Amino acid sequence: HGKITTTEAKARRLRPYAERLVTKAKKGDLHNRRQVLQVITDKSVVHTLFTEIGPRYENRPGGYTRITKIG
Prior knowledge:
Structural class: mainly alpha
Strand content: under 5%
Number of strands: 0
Radius of gyration: 13 Å
Largest sheet: none
Number of helices: 3
Shape: globular
Mean pLDDT: 94
């Protein structure tokens, strides 16, 4: 389900970056793909972002990530 386990402080710092990347993946054009490739250099991760995650949130206007405290 695309979960990451990290500290709460790191999660809060990374949330805006993740939100922007998913928004670019929703648009799905070549320009946005190249912008994401500048941030994430792993092409397989970018491919997953644009083919699976972007279309999943196509109709949602934001709020793609959730921070859940464990323990």
